Every structure is written in structure tokens, then in C-alpha cells.
Description:
The complex is a heterodimer.
Chain A: H1 8-19, H2 22-30, H3 33-54, H4 59-81, H5 90-106, H6 111-133, H7 138-157, H8 161-164, H9 199-219, H10 222-232, H11 234-239, H12 244-270, H13 280-293, H14 300-313, H15 325-339, H16 343-355
Helix pairs in contact in A: 3-9, 4-9, 4-10, 4-12, 4-13, 4-14, 5-6, 5-12, 6-7, 6-12, 10-12, 13-14, 13-16, 14-16
Chain B: E1 2-13, E2 16-27, E3 31-35, H1 42-49, E4 57-62, E5 65-66, H2 72-77, E6 80-83, H3 95-108, H4 123-135, H5 151-164, E7 169-173, H6 181-198, E8 202-205, H7 209-215, E9 218-223, E10 226-231, H8 233-238, H9 240-247
Parallel strand pairs in B: 3-8, 3-9, 6-7, 7-8
Antiparallel strand pairs in B: 1-2, 1-4, 4-5, 9-10
Helix pairs in contact in B: 3-4, 3-5, 4-5, 5-6
Amino acid sequence: MSDEPSDATATAPAEVERGRGFAARWSAFRDREFSTVVVMSLGVLVFPVVFNSLLDGYNQLATLMLIWGIFAVGFDILLGYTGLLSFGHAVFWGGAAYVAGIFSASVSSDPLLVILAGTGFAVLLSVIVGSLSLRRGGIYFAILTLTFGQMAFYLATSPLAFLTNGENGFTSVDIGPLFGVLDLHQPLPGAFGMLPGNTLYLFVGVLAVAAVAAANRILHSPYGIVFRAIRENERRAEFVGLNVWRYKLMAFVISAAFAGVAGSLFTIEGNYVPLDSLYWTTSGEVVIMTALGGVGSLFGPLLGAGVYLYIEFIVSGMEVIGPFWHLILGAVFVLVIVLFPAGIWGGVEAARDALAGGED
Amino acid sequence: MTVLETDGLTKQFGGLVAVDDVDVRIERGEGVSLIGPNGAGKSTFIDLVTQRLQPTGGDVRFKDESIVGMDPHEIVQRGMSKSFQTASVFPELTVEENATIAALAAEHGAFRLNFFRHENAYPEVTELAAEVLDSVGLYDQRDETAADLDYGNKRRLEIGIALASEPDMLLMDEPTAGMSPEETESTVNLIKEVKEAMNLTFLLVEHDMEIVFDISDRIVVLNRGQVIAAGDPKAVRDDPEVQTAYLGGTAQ
């Protein structure tokens, strides 16, 4: 902290001071947009190597973690930054998954078009669901979104079974090669085959990096500060002249767009759309992943998604403790939230600050 | 030029007439205070002016336009800003971010669709925020979290947020409530400074008579929902009806 008098001169010594020390340099690096992309790309490349060799992981699960991670990163824009708890985001994830699947079977099997279709649907739907749900705040908003989610679930179960194939899930997914040449379910040609993970993982990885970069940009546009202002004091935000309702709707739509990309990828990854993807537990899962990873942080939700799926798929297969994975998940959640109310990412930040000598 | 004008403004709650046929007119550059005993209808009047409540009769015109039925953000966008009775800030954000939010709404309106333009590309917003923080004396504390400010500074920030909206008129609801004498003095000075510097028009609701007589050009006295006196501070102080209704009971 500088005690210099205010004016232009005060900033100069402050900058110099900020340049010192590892923590300071790290925070300067972190604030740059480019570094977010670099960190995320490196993470995506290194992750399967570590995951597969040390943690009993496999490429398919790593892919799934990234897909859920995209979902959770977008969800956090709504929950962590704007302070709105939706219990119905399954409708965007599952809705996009179904539209992606049906689109692939009957219109085009191009993966990018499939994603575009699924995401477009999620966005349109979110404008409708958001406009209606956002008329009420707090618990009523949560219940309204939950209700819309369950309505979609029942629609898919029977009235729309001719489209969705009802309880059996949609099985006719037909994903073609990317750009007409690159089959996502085959190894990459030539030297690219040396890259970690597999083709599908890398495809999802590229989109995950793009998703994180997009979220980072949105949060560093005026939207980021407006969202947090609404979370902090909605009435005051209205009285500085902001149209709070519209910004809330935008937060809702943006988070639904991320859910749409993720849901479409889920279809591409699994070649199948389970009816569960619309069930309220899916909405609950993304809430838990986000809270576990750390609400109000960019990377936290990715970690939350990873830990959640790790327990669901790896711990559940372990001897002795495997059958108790639900219990373990609950215990981990409680432990993390009690120790670090800001989630796993909050713990990471606390550890980093402690290592850096408690400064900053 | 008339900034605010109420015309036969009335609010009835069942059988109770909280605001009864009130005509108030505020000219540009004028500092007007609204006083009256508890239950006189001051808060209701402010709520009607900010459209938190809908009048049951009469009209509220701001810069010659009726604002009845408008949303708060529409009224603020037209140039009427409000400072709250409690220190209503954005607690977990920094002081600078608090001012930036208001500056953003002032410079770029109630809503912008572009969610992809980086915040660094809005220098006019950053400049306005810095200017406002400088004028309320919080520029040095710009990186502190608002929740960590002491109460007096929170109130200053609150006023700063209201000023960052570049208002044509500022409503202040008991700006010195809950302040220590030193904080009160510095806030009163702040209001005076800002009034001088920005030719600020304000409507102030206040209990503290000293402050009211000190900073107002004109005083409007409400009692039981009705205007019983209006005029410059001296005239109001000497008005016999005011003395009985309001000052009489507590005269030293």
C-alpha cells in the first residue's frame, strides 16, 4: 500500500511495488487474458497424461470432465457472479443434447453444426424460461427453474417420445467427421497421434479453452462488474440506472449457451442422449460441481466437475469403498465447504497466499 | 428551469392520507430540504418521487416529463439519482468498482448488449469513476473493499455512487444518519463542496436542524402529509406554525 498523495504520481510507485515478489508477478500475469488461454491450454494438454498414469483415469472420462467443466464454468456466471441459483439448467444441457442428437440424425452430422443447433436451441429456450423465471427472486426463481426443468423432462418422457424415443433415450445419434475429414472417434493422423488424450478429447479440449477464454472475457467486460453489482446489492444497481432485469436475463442466457455447448458435446461424446440428461438431478449435479469447485471463480467449476466425476467414476470402482461413493462425495463436499467456503479454488488460493508469505 | 415538480401529489393508504395534495417545485441549482416531525410523510414523499410507490393522485414531473409509472432505472437515466438512508454500497467490490458501476450506467445507459468488449476499452468510464472518487475524497482508498471502509467513508462512497450517475438532481435521505459529529461535519462540507463545484440540485430529507439550516437554499415543511410552510431557512425558522408543529416541542 502506498501512502503517497493522490494524483497521477501515486500510481507510479504503486506499480513498481506491485512488480516485486512472486505473488505480485503471478497476479500481474494472471490478469492478462492471454495467460488464461495459455494456462488452460497447458492444463488440457497435461491433464490426461497425469490423470491416466497416476490417477487410474482414462481418456473418455477426461473428456467427460471437460464437457461438464464447460457446463459448470457457464453456470458459475449465473450462480457465482450474478448470485442467481437456478435448479433447472438440465433443461438447457439436456435440451441441447436432444436437439444435437436429433439434428445429427435428420439434418446434418457435421459436429460443428450439431453443436450450433444444440446451443442455438438452448439459447432460445433460455430467453423464454429466463423471462418467466426471473420475474421472481430467490427461492421462487429456483423453484420456477426447477419446474421448467421437470416439465421438459416429462415432455421428453412421453408426449414427445416420437422425437426423443422416451425412456430408452435417443439412440440414433449420427456424428460425422469434423470438416468432413476428421473422424472424432479415430486416432489423429501422423505425428498428431503423439498428442496426449485422443481425437475427441482434443476436440473437446479446444472448445473448453475457447469456453474459458469466452467466460474470462465476459467477466472482464462491463458485464462482469454489473453481474457482481447485482449479486451484491440489486436495489442499488437499479438506482444507479442499470436495467437489472435485462442483465439478469443476459446472465441466464449466457449460462444457458455454455450449457448448450456442453450438452451438445455430451451427445457427440456418448453417441447417445439419456433421458436422465433432462432430469432434475442433472441440474443438481452442476450446482454441486460449481459450489464444490468454488463459486465466483473462473477455474473453480472445472475442478469441481473433475472431482465430482472422479468420485462418481473412479472411486465408485474401488474395492471396499466403491459402493459408498455417494457418501464419499457428500463427505468431500461438506469437508471442502466447511474448510473453504470458496470451494476447492478458494483452498488453492488460500494455499498460494500462504506460500507467498501471506502478502496480498 | 424547473427540475422537479409535484402537482397535487397524494398517497392514501386505506383511510390514512400519508401525502396530501403536495405541490413542490425545485429549480436547477437549488438545494431544498424536506423536514417535518416523524410520520409527516417525508419518506412516503421520497418514495413517490422515486416511484417506489405509486401515487393515488397527482403527478410527479422531472424536467417537464411525468415519471409516474417508470422503473427506477429509467428515472435515474433521466438524471434523478438517489443516495440511500443506510450506506447502500456494493460491499464485496472495491471502492473503485463501486464508482465504476455508476459511471458505466451514466456513460452507457441502462443496458448494453455487447458482452464481449473488454473493460479496458471504456476509458471514459474509468475517468469518470476516478473523478468522482477524487471529489468525495476516496481516491486513495480506491483498491479497498467497500465493506472494509468505516461508516463515514461508506456514506461518502454512497454519495459518490449517486454523483457518478451525473445527476441533474440528487435525492438524499438522511445523509448523516448514524454518523459521529466529525463524520457529520465532513459530510456536510462534502455536500456543500459538491453543490458549489457541480451546481448540484438536491432534495434532502434530514432530521438534524443544524444541517438543514446550514446547507439549504429553501426548506419545505411537511406535517400530517401537508406542506405547512416553505421558504428560505430564516423564514421557515420564524414561521409560527412551524414552531408549534415541529420546532416548538424541542426548542432549547
